[in-house]
Amino acid sequence: MLTTLAIDGYRSLRSLVVPLSPLTVVTGANGSGKSSLYRSLRLLGAAARDGAIRALAAEGGFPGTLWAGPESGAPASGPVQGTVRRRPVALRLGFGTDADGFGYAMDLGMPIPSQTMFGADPEIKAEAVWSGPVLRSGSLISERRGAIVRTRTGAGWLTIQRALAPWESMLAEFGDPDATPDLLELRSGLRDWRFYDSVRTDADAPARRPAIGTRTPILASDGSDLASALQTIREQGDPAALAASIDRALPGSRLQITDHGGRFELSLRQPGMLRALSAAELSDGTLRYLVWVAALMSTRPAALMAVNEPETSLHPSILEPLAGMLVDAATRSQIIVVSHSAPLVAALERSGAAVHVLEKVDGETRVQGQGPLDAPAWAWPTR
């Protein structure tokens, strides 16, 4: 389980270290940095697929994602003024875990000028994998500095005889079961992270259309296989819990999945209606709730699931059942919820979730109430 998330130099997150629990809620006013924290998790997950640099490009490029304020942060008072940079440009992301897991951090920086049209791509300057919550010399397992990777073995440190390109992550490129089993385990864990943040419910949403039916233990990020995912829970999961979760939010409603020549279609039979309503006829809120049912009751729980603003389009009466599903899912997966819904946050906090309120002070995102000595211990790898 992740116990710490650390971000340095990313958008408004100049230097942030956040403690994590089995169920963590991140909230705050609009513009406080919630989305940036969520995106930083996505970037870490992309490292295991060698896609962190591509993910940064999708956000507008490396320079546009860097902290734009003074290197040491904005002053407590007085005008903001530029200063001479003393440290290299860096965007650093990392996480620590409990004693049974592996922590990871990466340091991205500006490339060395050369004759290439890809000069705006960042380079991975350093990476580190360690055991437990904090990087220390005694807990270090593997490290990458520049193009060179070395890993700890029973006989001492082994330098891997293959230079990495500046855009390649050691997590994506190395994972030999014999030479680097810990890297392989960490990569597998990161690839199991799931993110749900942009499931459409408009009239043309994929979730509204019939789709080829196949066993679906993991709902697609766009919800296109919603009918198959719900039917999989019925047949391979807990059908009673599935029916109860729908009834709690939509009293008297019953799920119906029909097969039309191999294509599964979702519909909902509701009290007082002479026929079931198809997915195309359901309200945005009803459809979105069914998406959360499918995601959170997955028959193959994720190591970590991050959900961004799950309250979107939901009626206030549905927030309590949603909170109950999130709490239940946190018994099988580590859950991180980003939300600005006060009722949902309150419901989750009453159920034991750790709640962190973000605030922006002089352009910099901070955890409300977290003093200089309150943040979890953290150390970055050196270049």
From TrEMBL:
Origin superkingdom: Bacteria
SUPFAM superfamilies tied to this protein: P-loop containing nucleoside triphosphate hydrolases (SSF52540)
UniProt cross-references to InterPro entries, sorted A to Z: ATPase_AAA_core (IPR003959), P-loop_NTPase (IPR027417), RecF-like (IPR014555)
Keywords: DNA damage, SOS response
Signal peptide positions (record): none
Residue ranges of coiled coil: none
Domain ATPase AAA-type core: from-to ranges: 23-345
Protein name per its UniProtKB record: AAA family ATPase
